[in-house]
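Supplementary Text 2. Reproducibility record for the structural model of the 362-residue chain.

All settings were left at their defaults, and a single model was retained for analysis rather than an ensemble. We include the record here because the model underlies the residue-level annotations in Supplementary Table 4.
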Amino acid sequence: MSHYMSGLVVRSEGVPAEVVELRLPEIGPGQVRVRIRAAGVCHSDLSMVNGTLRPPHPLVLGHEAAGEVLEAGERVTRAAAGDHVILNWQPACRSCWFCENGQPWLCSTSSGVAALENGMTLDDAPVHVTLGVGAFAEQVVVPENAVIRVPKELEFDRAALLGCAVLTGTGAVRNTAQVRPGESVLVIGLGGVGLSVVAAARAAGAAQVIAVDVSEAKKGLAEAAGATDFVVSSDTLSKDIRSRTNKLGADHAIECVGRAATIRAAWRATRRGGQVTVVGMGAADDMLQLGALDIFSSARILRASVYGQADTDLEVPALARDVLDGKLSLDHLITDRIGLADVPAAFERMSRGEGARSVVIL
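Retained model, structure tokens:
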């Protein structure tokens, strides 16, 4: 039986997103149908519409979400009707080389797919869904490995953030950078992911967490997340950071923007022998240039953190328990609760550097 429901769709590049009626496919073996209850507006969603990424169209936006399982197909064992779940936009197949060698976040069956068809249609024509999810919709059909059960006591708006912003930011600190007590951490870009990095760095025992953004308005959010310092980005950023870190530079710089200019700024603001971790997803043609001698003499490490370098099936439930136990607060992350039709306005706020996370409540 097919289901009709509302979803936010971009019909073609350069055309504003609009709420339309979509037809959901019947579930097959190994699939589940989920009623979306909350979905965060992530910078990756903005990248799908502002030209940073070039996904196929028509496109259902959204990937950071939580909801309730309405129906489970044959042979499904991970979830049943009534379960509360977080959606995993990069589920591990558990059988490719990367999964079998302890790197499920690089799973070859899901990595690098901006959007794909999954049977959903608009006016009887196939549509693509963002990162295999298309969460800005009332319901979705996904493979069972794309859902992770969480306790029903966890509110849907907070649960949604665990599936992308919080896992990505926390994982970048814990798994990729492996920040140690007493170290200094520079965080560039203070959206939902960047603020999660700030909170995780303080929780890891960093003595100094320097938060950087282009907007002075982010100062309060940064401090609420646990930043010890706040700096408005400028051409003198590396000098500003060195003046706050005994003229050495930060032990770690974590870049949450995804631009060559800010990656280079992070590189220059990191001490010799320090580590730069790139979390932001950038454009393919935004080229980063570093001098060969600089790479050698600085002895810095430059690496990326994909989806928090996390095994989502283990770490998302652990984060959920931390929230319920009061060890992890997400109150500072949600600055706007909106409807589907308000997502374009949320993109505009994000482009202006305003707020943290907008969450669609369905």
